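Reopening this ticket.

The earlier resolution said the output was attached, but the attachment link was broken on my side. Pasting everything inline this time so it's all in one place.
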Amino acid sequence: MKPDSLGWSLLLAARVLARVDAGESLPKALASLALESRGASAAAKDIAYGVLRRHGESGFVLGRLMSRHLAHPETYALLQAALYRLETRPDARPMVVDQAVRAAGELADAKYKKLVNGVLRNYLRQREVLISEGKKDEVVRYLHPLWWLKRLRKDYPRHWESIIEAGNSQPPMTLRVNRRKTTAEDYAGALSASGLMAKQSLARGEFGGDALFLETPLSVDRLPGFHDGLVSVQDAGAQWVAKLLSPRSGERVLDACAAPGGKTAHLLESADVDLVAIDMDAARAARIEENLKRLGLSAKIRIADCCALESWWDGRLFDAILADVPCSGSGVVRRHPDIKALRRESDVRRFAVKQRAILDTLWRTLVPGGRLLYATCSVFVEENAGSINAFLIRRPDAESILERQLLPCPEHDGFYYALLRKTA
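Inline output:
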């Protein structure tokens, strides 16, 4: 099968989707496949993202077209990929079916080729009926798991549909200008001189003036001065961290759970601080160092579990702490659609327990009068206000300075922030 053919892209996409179905994250599955196949095609990546973004749709259709679940994961994933391509390329439907059948021959024996051919042709014959039936199914209509929908309805009775709509949209490509090297105005001019158009946030004051929105996403290699550290790619909502924590020159600052280092770098761009960055994943921690080197910044990087104080803490208290805690990622699902397939409702409680343990541990390392910024990229209340309210009850020496839930919208993803002060 030719590497530039649609069948090859469907084949690669199916292998990625099967890995995700087995519990692997989409970025990791794509990286693994790129190594195994000497590079995964852009088309395969687009198909995999598309299938996962339209969560529940292909499962609904295949449930109607097959009498029992297909036991061969890669063939099932191939059918998902082909169904997505049939809808996004309606002018090429005969070719999509033909190429999917050819791809099936690369995955398994001849019986699966016949099955793929039959299922896809049945879909085209019954398409209108299946689409009509799908509109009556909540998972298909909203492209999110049912438990997720129920939780959003409870947490945001007035806004849950707009959150869902944002979660199903394409994310913007947002830049963070390195204020140590340039300004948003000057960098926007550099973009314009390169034939690239960008705009600043409609809520510029809230984002501190460092965010620029590109009209068209592109490779970072095309960004002027990217490799010289003039700019980074970071969602505008994530850029609230530096403004809220507001590091001051000379302070000792901790960034817990720091990888891949975007927020670490922004804190260092904002003030001359003595910063310790921690992450327990060695591979992800290496990305912190790479990002800081590109930007001309430095920090003390520790590979450790932030809750295991004896493994990294020297006993010196911090003036400010960023606790960017592990979470469900429900606020960034448009960037990471595999979250909809990987998460279970029980994960929300598991994350909340972990978050509360991190808060209790890090609080011990904060100087009296110091600040701790609790951050998640979740929209679920249990992980956000639920964790903070429980912490404030447990800790009489903690006071809330600010609390802000950013719901996903065209300009930014969903984030939660709570700024706390240690009173004694």
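Reporter confirms the inline version is readable. Residues 173-234 form a domain with the Alpha-Beta Plaits fold (CATH 3.30.70.1170). The chain has a mean pLDDT of 94.
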